[in-house]
Structure formats: structure tokens, C-alpha cells
């Protein structure tokens, strides 16, 4: 299976085009409070230059559904990533507002919180979103932490989740450890921000290429390939 790759925290056209040229399937744009936050007009200008088959995902935290869908329409997004406390009811409201213009919905889940609380309000409602993202974020720092969650401790939970929904692994991934994550979890997709940056909001194009190459190499390896302890 070819792993879906999202390069998130995109802030400028040069980085966006470099990621697409390297083989990224999707780009992420942060509309939430962050040092990587981008304005609507900036995203609109970037999206206008991207290939039609590149997914354009907006990241939001606890924004009203009407605001999220207005931004998505105005910016030309193909998907939204919900990184806050959004409920199944909220997702259904998004669906109603989007109408016939169906948009991909990703919901982020904290691996740490899930270990103690499960999916909370999302338990049994996985089908209301298209993809679930397991991340290392928390209520203080929702994402972009630059650190991995406890992969071994979370492996049973992630494997169980994958029986019900496509799963994206995020949190602290980089060109050196993403192959190990893929061999362990065999996720539907992976998401990276910090691991391919020179500094906040600016991508290291060589790291982006190395990250994507590492994913494609891992796609060819058997499940359960050795995972180094330093990545757990």
C-alpha cells in the first residue's frame, strides 16, 4: 500500500511546490493559533498554483463550523483537519453546511489522552470522519510538538483503531524515524511539520525529499521490520 503523505505547516509557495515536486499527496495550512499560522489570502494564492490532484488541508482548532466551511470554500481547500475538541455533532454540522461540495474531514486524537480515556465522545462515531489522526499533542499544544508519542504503548490502540477507520500517524516524525513508524503501524498516512523544517514556518527542502523517500522505501518493507528503541 502506498502511504498517504501530508506536509503540514506550509506557509509559502516555494515550500508548497517543493513538497509537491518531492511527491507529497497533501499540504496542510494552519488557520489555528500558531507561529505557522497563515492568512486566508496567502493560502488562496498558494492553492491557485498547486496541481488539482494535490490535497489542500486546512487545520482548525475549535472554530465554528460556519467559519471553517467559509474559509475552506474561499481558500479552495479540499479537506479540513479538526485539531480541537470537535464532536461528532460538530462534524455532522460541517457536512450539512458543505452540502454537495463534499470535503475530506480529518479528526486529530491525542495518543496520550486516548490511552487513558479512549476516544471520548468519538467512541463509536469514527465513521463520521474520513480519517483519524493519532498525534502527540495535548490541550496546551495541539500539534507541532516535535516529539513522538509512545509508539509501543499505543500500538494496540492504533491497530484497533485501524480496523474502524483510516489512520494517520503524526507527532515528531522525521526522515530518520518515519520508516520505523510505517513498519510498526502500517498506517493509511503520515503527517509531518517540525521534522522537515529549517525554522518555524520554513521548510528544509532536502529534508522534505528525504522524508518522502523514506516513506516510499518503507512502503516496500514487510510489516514488523525492526524498530530502533530511540524512536519509541
Explain what the structure shows:
The chain is an alpha/beta fold. It has one domain (4-231): Aldolase class I (TIM Barrel). It is 35% helix and 19% strand. The strands form two sheets. Strands 1-2-3-4-5-6-7-8 form an eight-stranded parallel β-barrel, surrounded by six helices. Strands 9-10 form a two-stranded antiparallel sheet. It is globular, with a radius of gyration of 16 Å. The model has no long low-confidence stretch (mean pLDDT 88).
Morphology:
globular
**Overall structural domain count:** 1
CATH architecture: Alpha-Beta Barrel
CATH class: Alpha Beta
Structural class: alpha/beta
Span of the ends, CA to CA = 23 Å
User: In order across it, which strands form the biggest sheet?
Assistant: 1-2-3-4-5-6-7-8
Topology record:
Blueprint: E1 4-7, H1 13-22, E2 26-30, H2 40-47, E3 55-60, H3 65-75, E4 79-82, H4 88-98, E5 104-110, H5 111-117, E6 131-135, H6 151-162, E7 167-169, H7 178-185, E8 189-192, E9 197-199, E10 202-203, H8 205-219
Parallel strand pairs: 1-2, 1-8, 2-3, 3-4, 4-5, 5-6, 6-7, 7-8
Antiparallel strand pairs: 9-10
Helix pairs in contact: 1-8, 3-4, 7-8
Amino acid at each position: 500500500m502506498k502511504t498517504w503523505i501530508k506536509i503540514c505547516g506550509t506557509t509559502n509557495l516555494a515550500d508548497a511546490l517543493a513538497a509537491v515536486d518531492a511527491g507529497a499527496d497533501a499540504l496542510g495550512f494552519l488557520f489555528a493559533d500558531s507561529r505557522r499560522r497563515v492568512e486566508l489570502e496567502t493560502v488562496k494564492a498558494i492553492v491557485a498554483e498547486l496541481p488539482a490532484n494535490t490535497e489542500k488541508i486546512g487545520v482548525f482548532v475549535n472554530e465554528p463550523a460556519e467559519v471553517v466551511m467559509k474559509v475552506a470554500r474561499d481558500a479552495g481547500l479540499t479537506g479540513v483537519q479538526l485539531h480541537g475538541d470537535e464532536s461528532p455533532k460538530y462534524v455532522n454540522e460541517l457536512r450539512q453546511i458543505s452540502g454537495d461540495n463534499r470535503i475530506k474531514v480529518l479528526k486529530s486524537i491525542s495518543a496520550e489522552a486516548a490511552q487513558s480515556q479512549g476516544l471520548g465522545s468519538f467512541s463509536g462515531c469514527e465513521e463520521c470522519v474520513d480519517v483519524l489522526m493519532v498525534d502527540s499533542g495535548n490541550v496546551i499544544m495541539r500539534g507541532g510538538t516535535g516529539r513522538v508519542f509512545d509508539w509501543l504503548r499505543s500500538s494496540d490502540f492504533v491497530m484497533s483503531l485501524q480496523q474502524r477507520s483510516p489512520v494517520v500517524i503524526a507527532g515528531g516524525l522525521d526522515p530518520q524515524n518515519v520508516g520505523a513508524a510505517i513498519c510498526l503501524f502500517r498506517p493509511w498516512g503520515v503527517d509531518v511539520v517540525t521534522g522537515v523544517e529549517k525554522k518555524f514556518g520554513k521548510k528544509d527542502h532536502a529534508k522534505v525529499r528525504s522524508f518522502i523517500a523514506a516513506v516510499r522505501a518503507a512502503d516496500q518493507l514487510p510489516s514488523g521490520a525492526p524498530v530502533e528503541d530511540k524512536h519509541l
